[in-house]
From TrEMBL, chains A, B:
<dbReference type="InterPro" id="IPR009057">
    <property type="entry name" value="Homeodomain-like_sf"/>
</dbReference>
<keyword id="KW-0805">Transcription regulation</keyword>
<feature type="region of interest" description="Disordered">
    <location>
        <begin position="72"/>
        <end position="98"/>
    </location>
</feature>
<dbReference type="InterPro" id="IPR003012">
    <property type="entry name" value="Tet_transcr_reg_TetR"/>
</dbReference>
<dbReference type="GO" id="GO:0045892">
    <property type="term" value="P:negative regulation of DNA-templated transcription"/>
</dbReference>
<dbReference type="GO" id="GO:0000976">
    <property type="term" value="F:transcription cis-regulatory region binding"/>
</dbReference>
<dbReference type="GO" id="GO:0003700">
    <property type="term" value="F:DNA-binding transcription factor activity"/>
</dbReference>
<dbReference type="Pfam" id="PF00440">
    <property type="entry name" value="TetR_N"/>
</dbReference>
<keyword id="KW-0238">DNA-binding</keyword>
<dbReference type="InterPro" id="IPR001647">
    <property type="entry name" value="HTH_TetR"/>
</dbReference>
<dbReference type="InterPro" id="IPR004111">
    <property type="entry name" value="Repressor_TetR_C"/>
</dbReference>
<protein>
    <recommendedName>
        <fullName>Transcriptional regulator, TetR family</fullName>
    </recommendedName>
</protein>
<dbReference type="InterPro" id="IPR036271">
    <property type="entry name" value="Tet_transcr_reg_TetR-rel_C_sf"/>
</dbReference>
<keyword id="KW-0804">Transcription</keyword>
<feature type="compositionally biased region" description="Acidic residues">
    <location>
        <begin position="79"/>
        <end position="91"/>
    </location>
</feature>
<dbReference type="GO" id="GO:0046677">
    <property type="term" value="P:response to antibiotic"/>
</dbReference>
<dbReference type="InterPro" id="IPR050109">
    <property type="entry name" value="HTH-type_TetR-like_transc_reg"/>
</dbReference>
Length: 227, 227
DNA sequence: CACCTGACTTTACGTAGTAAGTCTAGGATG
DNA sequence: CATCCTAGACTTACTACGTAAAGTCAGGTG
């Protein structure tokens, strides 16, 4: 490897950055550490992301927002098992609209959970990537197929996306470290105490809520007051 | 105000920190700037938050997670109008369970939207504050009153919280600055193009999705496949 | 009056992002 | 072959950040 070709690329940089984030947390992702991981000086990264760290952040968000990529490569948790499906499934037979939405939701959730350390980066970035548009297209087509009137489709898609992202964050929050002095569960919260023994299976809860939301979104509407 | 009593307090520090976050963004909240805003040296803050900035962050999250506080003080957007309700409403007549949930959701959403710059701080902090427990108590009681079997109550509450937080983030994301090179809306996304003229009223969309979710959560359940 | 304590300040250090400059290899040009 | 150019990688240097440690100082207490 000659001096000035370390084989850097955006893809490789983002993958390495995500490995650092997943392993040590977002705060630990520094240009110097990233450079070290890539066997390169920190400033070399600026050649591929001339706008600096913010641009790198955006690339990371774009990466994890695309389940196809985020679920494929960067987690070598288990040894690469030989897949039952040999390669690209030749003819993905058309699934019903609700199954397509459920599948998307599960994939997106898995991608976000896998890289939950990068979640704070998503909040203030507009989802105007190709992956985001692909997801919206899937949502709109499915809800249209479900029989929603056009003017209700974008709202339904927004609700679905909101729920999935919110569920991921809810899970991540609940699994976070306890704060320095957590509030005590005492008599002020009788119902919580009564139900505190029920343990949560995040996967199950997610799917139940998802079913409820989809059912509510595609059922005949009831008007409610303005509050 | 003598030299060594600038009248600092956790409350005042957090309020000022939130003003900085709301006005200039989370990245701009530095100890020095916060000290300046409080007419104090940066290190003075460490007297009230000895564990440093992380502890300050936690206090900020606790603050905005309590709609009663977050919606009250720190936004002097409009001049303080004389309220129609004179003081603490003397006897808050009991509202039906669904109205209580809807009211909570709207208040929580408003609090988060008002301080959306602080949202990234929430993601990895466990919601174990008094305000969070109060909210959970409200949820559990309401869903129990709605007739949900006890084992489904925590899941329903989680779904509701997920939706509200997700909806706020969805809105904030959609209002963020466009990325450096946004994806083009071309023929690959026909349904999106067809519906792109529909403009979104975030408040309305939020309430519609909320109604759908509540309806789905409290309606008789239908089992779906494992995906 | 001496002393203490709590509230803020001063000084200083290590690390962060990154602007600006330097260096090297390899191709283009004469 | 000698020279120059350029893109990419590396170095230096600057500013700003979080915060440890020590200092300062008013007001209360004995």
């Amino acid at each position: 490897m000659s001096r000035n070709n370390a084989g850097l690329s955006r893809e490789r940089i983002v993958a390495e950055a995500l490995r650092i984030i997943d392993g040590m947390g977002l705060r630990s992702l520094t240009m110097r550490r990233l450079g070290d991981a890539l066997n390169v000086e920190a400033m070399a990264i600026y050649h591929h992301f001339p706008l600096g760290k913010e641009q790198l952040y955006s690339a990371i968000v774009e990466y994890i927002s695309d389940p196809a990529r985020a679920l494929a490569s960067p987690a070598a948790e288990t040894a690469p098992e030989d897949e039952a499906t040999p390669e690209t499934d030749p003819e993905p037979e058309p699934r019903p609209w609700d199954q397509r939405l459920r599948d998307w939701a599960c994939d997106y959730r898995a991608a976000l959970l896998r890289h939950s350390g990068a979640l704070p980066l998503m909040i203030h970035r507009r989802p105007d990537t190709v992956a985001a548009l692909r997801a919206t297209e899937l949502h709109y087509a499915a809800f249209t197929e479900a029989g929603l009137p056009p003017e209700e489709v974008p709202g339904a898609a927004a609700a679905l996306t909101s729920y999935v992202l919110g569920a991921v964050i809810h899970q991540v929050r609940s699994e976070g470290l306890p704060s320095s002095d957590p509030a005590v569960l005492d008599g002020r919260f009788p119902t919580v105490m009564a139900l505190s023994s029920i343990d949560v299976d995040h996967d199950r809860v997610f799917r139940t809520g998802l079913d409820a939301l989809l059912a509510g979104l595609t059922a005949p509407r009831v008007q409610h007051g303005e509050r």
